[in-house]
Model the fold of this input.
Amino acid sequence: MFLLVRDVSEYTEWNPILLGIFADEATAEAARLAYIADTTGNDPWQEQAYKVPDLARDVRVAKIENEGASHEMASVFLVTRHLEGMGQFSRWYLAVFASLDAARERAAQEDAEEKVVAEYISIEEFTVNKHYFRGS
Done:
């Protein structure tokens, strides 16, 4: 599985922004190009604190740990670690799972680790091969 993400200033919004989860790299890359085409000239993140946006650099495809999710699945569960601190908002997409139970197990393991005060784990269900951006 592959994520399509948009890097933005951690002082502006949760970084990175998830734009989609895709079964294969080619589909994710096609979605990347569609996002760049759709956003060029009308970028909702054109004003960022301490960062000059560059769509070609900031929009990227990233492989993600896959726990049992097959390419044929319609949806997956994404486990994410979030951290808020000193005016910054960061997140790490940890893994996708075929089942909610497996995602909950991983989230519990992550939650059991020592962490800073403003850190938490979330689980969200996403449709595979769906664009989560304007124009889609």
